[in-house]
């Protein structure tokens, strides 16, 4: 059976930390679907979702076992549609764990076949997060070193 993992997130923007999780996840899974979700908690995106979708596709153009989709539904239901039995998530710190643990419990309750796999962020990328990158970019700072693609 093919091991398919969803890597869901708002990815606003998709950072080198996200890229690291996908590349390391490819050692565990046969296929990874990067699922860009509309987060109901984040009303206004900084980068248009279609722009980010294209940038992520470009980033993994040479990885045939990585695909990118946009979705607006429960992640547990999306996993069923794509026959994904795993959710892939990155953890930078204990705060991430607390948040992600709650989500993984609900996803498992909604879809009992769904397992969440956590990868600890590589140390050199642990300080990189989308919120900080957005803020630096908003005020004209250079963010290229945090992104796996050209803005």
Automatic annotation (TrEMBL):
<comment type="pathway">
    <text>Cofactor biosynthesis; coenzyme A biosynthesis; CoA from (R)-pantothenate: step 4/5.</text>
</comment>
<keyword id="KW-0808">Transferase</keyword>
<dbReference type="InterPro" id="IPR001980">
    <property type="entry name" value="PPAT"/>
</dbReference>
<feature type="binding site">
    <location>
        <position position="100"/>
    </location>
    <ligand>
        <name>ATP</name>
    </ligand>
</feature>
<comment type="function">
    <text>Reversibly transfers an adenylyl group from ATP to 4'-phosphopantetheine, yielding dephospho-CoA (dPCoA) and pyrophosphate.</text>
</comment>
<feature type="site" description="Transition state stabilizer">
    <location>
        <position position="18"/>
    </location>
</feature>
<feature type="binding site">
    <location>
        <position position="75"/>
    </location>
    <ligand>
        <name>substrate</name>
    </ligand>
</feature>
<feature type="binding site">
    <location>
        <position position="89"/>
    </location>
    <ligand>
        <name>substrate</name>
    </ligand>
</feature>
<feature type="binding site">
    <location>
        <position position="18"/>
    </location>
    <ligand>
        <name>ATP</name>
    </ligand>
</feature>
<dbReference type="GO" id="GO:0015937">
    <property type="term" value="P:coenzyme A biosynthetic process"/>
</dbReference>
<keyword id="KW-0547">Nucleotide-binding</keyword>
<feature type="binding site">
    <location>
        <position position="42"/>
    </location>
    <ligand>
        <name>substrate</name>
    </ligand>
</feature>
<keyword id="KW-0460">Magnesium</keyword>
<comment type="similarity">
    <text>Belongs to the bacterial CoaD family.</text>
</comment>
<feature type="binding site">
    <location>
        <begin position="90"/>
        <end position="92"/>
    </location>
    <ligand>
        <name>ATP</name>
    </ligand>
</feature>
<comment type="subunit">
    <text>Homohexamer.</text>
</comment>
<keyword id="KW-0173">Coenzyme A biosynthesis</keyword>
<dbReference type="InterPro" id="IPR004821">
    <property type="entry name" value="Cyt_trans-like"/>
</dbReference>
<feature type="domain" description="Cytidyltransferase-like">
    <location>
        <begin position="6"/>
        <end position="135"/>
    </location>
</feature>
<dbReference type="GO" id="GO:0004595">
    <property type="term" value="F:pantetheine-phosphate adenylyltransferase activity"/>
</dbReference>
<keyword id="KW-0548">Nucleotidyltransferase</keyword>
<dbReference type="Pfam" id="PF01467">
    <property type="entry name" value="CTP_transf_like"/>
</dbReference>
<protein>
    <recommendedName>
        <fullName>Phosphopantetheine adenylyltransferase</fullName>
        <ecNumber>2.7.7.3</ecNumber>
    </recommendedName>
</protein>
<dbReference type="GO" id="GO:0005524">
    <property type="term" value="F:ATP binding"/>
</dbReference>
<keyword id="KW-0963">Cytoplasm</keyword>
<dbReference type="GO" id="GO:0005737">
    <property type="term" value="C:cytoplasm"/>
</dbReference>
<feature type="binding site">
    <location>
        <begin position="10"/>
        <end position="11"/>
    </location>
    <ligand>
        <name>ATP</name>
    </ligand>
</feature>
<feature type="binding site">
    <location>
        <begin position="125"/>
        <end position="131"/>
    </location>
    <ligand>
        <name>ATP</name>
    </ligand>
</feature>
<keyword id="KW-0067">ATP-binding</keyword>
<dbReference type="InterPro" id="IPR014729">
    <property type="entry name" value="Rossmann-like_a/b/a_fold"/>
</dbReference>
<feature type="binding site">
    <location>
        <position position="10"/>
    </location>
    <ligand>
        <name>substrate</name>
    </ligand>
</feature>
């Amino acid at each position: 059976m093919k091991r398919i993992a969803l890597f869901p997130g708002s990815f606003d923007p998709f950072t080198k930390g996200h890229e690291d999780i996908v590349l390391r996840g490819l050692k565990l899974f046969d296929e990874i679907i990067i699922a860009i979700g509309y987060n109901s908690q984040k009303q206004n995106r900084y980068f248009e979702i279609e722009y980010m979708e294209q940038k992520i596709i470009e980033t993994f153009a040479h990885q045939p076992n990585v695909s990118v989709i946009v979705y607006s539904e429960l992640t547990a239901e999306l996993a069923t549609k794509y026959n994904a039995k795993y959710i892939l998530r990155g953890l930078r710190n204990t705060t991430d764990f607390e948040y992600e643990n709650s989500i993984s419990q609900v996803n498992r309750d909604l879809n009992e076949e769904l397992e969440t796999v956590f990868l600890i962020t590589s140390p050199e990328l642990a300080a990189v997060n989308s919120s900080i990158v957005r803020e630096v970019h908003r005020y004209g700072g250079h963010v290229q070193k945090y992104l796996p693609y050209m803005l």
